[in-house]
Design a protein that fits this description.
CATH topology: Ferritin
Largest sheet: none
Helix content: over 70%
Radius of gyration: 16 Å
CATH superfamily: Ferritin, core subunit, four-helix bundle
Shape: elongated
């Protein structure tokens, strides 16, 4: 069972990483051929929503208290950042426009399916590995693709302001994962 869950988790993480590392490829599936601010806002919102969902799952399924507490922190932090992004989008009159056939959404569904199937220590490991990989992919996408493509200065400021939190979440997940080995 442990190996099966790791294989499922690895497959879903690869899809998620590809969606983040190549957001233009993911976006090209829809009508949007260029990365604009409304699409960036949608990606930003989705990334936060997805980590709220995985964090909530960890709160309810985590075997160790550290994993449950980390999941709770993700929920709180990402709700806060998502609220900031939505407030900014509203003030700028930007309507988030996720691309049609959003590859990131499909990858998240796959990751959640894998995490829901895992139990006990296997869940804790799979969840923490997911968080390390997810945050690495987000950091890479923000720094190499989203931030350079962002046109609005206020949106760029928000992306820059929250970037250290993504790094802190990744590092915390890695430390917890290292503690399980």
């Amino acid at each position: 069972m442990h190996l099966h869950s790791r294989i499922l988790s690895a497959a879903s993480m690869m899809a998620l990483i590809v969606a983040f590392m190549h957001p233009k490829d993911a976006l090209a599936q829809g009508a949007a051929s260029k990365l604009d601010d409304p699409t960036i806002v949608a990606i930003f919102d989705a990334a936060n929503t997805y980590d709220i969902e995985t964090g909530s799952l960890a709160v309810s399924k985590g075997r160790s208290r550290a994993v449950r507490d980390f999941g709770g922190m993700l929920v709180r932090d990402h709700r806060n950042v998502r609220a900031q992004g939505r407030k900014l989008a509203k003030s700028l009159h930007v309507t988030p426009t996720p691309p049609k056939d959003f590859a990131l959404a499909k990858a998240h569904v796959s990751a959640m399916r894998s995490l829901r199937a895992a139990k006990g220590k296997t869940f804790d490991r799979a969840f923490l590995q997911h968080e390390v990989d997810f945050h690495n992919a987000v950091i890479d996408a923000v720094t190499k693709t989203l931030l350079p493509a962002t046109q609005n200065a206020q949106l760029k400021d928000l992306e820059t302001k929250v970037a250290p939190a993504f790094v802190a979440h990744r590092d915390r997940a890695q430390n917890l994962l290292d503690g399980l080995k």
